[in-house]
Amino acid sequence: MTGRGGWVPHPCPHPHIPPQVFWGSGPVVPRTLPATPFDSAAQALLSGGFPLPGRAPVGWMPGTWPPSSTFTPILSTRHIVLCPWLIPNPANPSMPHVRWDVTQHPSTAKRITGRELVVDLKPKMNDQATYPPVQRAHIYCDLGVVSDLWGPIIVKNRDAVTVRDIVMAIYEYFQIRLSQDEVSYISALGSPQNYEKMVGSMYTRCMITPSLPGYEWSQGMRRVDCLGNSTKFWGLWVTENDDDTWQLNLGILPELRGVWV
Question: Sorted alphabetically, which InterPro entries does this protein's record hold (predicted)?
Answer without folding.
Answer: DUF6699
